[in-house]
Amino acid sequence: MEQLKRQAAARALEEVRDGMQLGLGTGSTAKHFVELLGERVAAGLKVIGVPTSEATRLDAMRCGVRLTTLDEIEHLDLTVDGADEIDPDFNLIKGGGGALLREKIVATASDRMIVIADDSKWVPTLGKFPLPIEVIPFGLGATRRAIEKAFAACGVSGPMAVRNAKGGDKDGHVFVTDGGHWILDAQLGRIVDPPGLAKALSAIPGVVEHGLFIGLASSAVLAGGEGIRVIERRKPKGD
Ligand code: A5P
Q1: Is residue 237 included in any domain, yes or no?
Q2: Residue 238 located in a structural domain
Q3: Catalytic: 209?
């Protein structure tokens, strides 16, 4: 599996040109990309990156990739990031690693987003992977009820739980995002209308962000047993 992830990362690296401003994703697949990028930088490639998490910031620094912020630069040429699920309309579920908020800010600021993944992430319908929803701890009960209403209005339902920190059990510590928020993971099974659900969740005050990425990915690099597939989204970014 790690081999497949690295192959996808290597293929995406072929799209990187000298002088590019890059969004650097989070997760085990994106980590391969950062490491391979570091090798190219050591060989003379000049790029600058904006990391989507503290973990990626540390990885990029370790690999010698020069970093900046979205306060210092105005746009990004390309973001390369992993995903938990990708559907044929290029809707994504992201946030399995908890970095969805910064990932979405960076992807939105980027001209293009390439999703890198092993091909098990390519699914006909989103929802088997629990949908991460980043929430403010204050008023969580009210936020949960509003989320459940939004689910019902969008024709989905399923159990939802506050994410625990790695290694934590039911009584363990709550997972806290880089932004200081909590995550609810919702097991919905099948999300019939990802854009509709994304809109409904975004309208809830206690929801900081959710893991549905709609209209952001421009292409997917999928590595599988039979090689690499590069699939381009036809619609322009934002549609
Ligand atoms: C991080 O918050 C996520 O969005 C990751 O990009 C996603 O979970 C994919 O991670 P892996 O590459 O580790 O599967």
Answers
A1: no
A2: no
A3: no
Q: Are 186 and 226 part of one and the same domain?
A: no
What pLDDT band is residue 170 in, cutting at 50, 70 and 90? Answer: low
Atom 12 in ligand 1: which residue has the minimum CA distance?
A: 29
Question: What CA–CA distances, in Å, run from 57 to 36, 78, 191, 213?
Answer: 15, 17, 32, 22
Residue 18 belongs to domain with CATH number = 3.40.50.1360
Mutational pocket test of ligand 1: of 7, 84, 177, the residue with most ligand atoms within 8 Å of the beta carbon: 84
Per the structure, the count of domains in the chain is 2
Give the mutation target among 4, 26, 119 for probing the ligand 1 site: most ligand atoms within 8 A of CB: 26
Ligand 1: which residues within 6 Å by Cβ? 25-30, 81-84, 94-100, 103
Instruction: State the virtual CA torsion across 98, 100, 101, 106 in degrees, nearest 10.
Output: 130
Full-model pTM: 0.95
pLDDT tens readout for residues 48-107? 999 999 999 999 999 999 999 999 999 999 999 999 999 999 999 999 999 999 999 999
- Greatest alpha-carbon pair distance for the chain in Å reads 53
CATH number at residue 174: 3.30.70.260
Domain limits for position 222: 2-122+215-232
Measured from the Cα of 98, ligand 1's closest atom is: 2
Same domain, 154 and 67: no
**Tokens linked to 146:** 């509003």
Structure tokens at 176: 């806290």
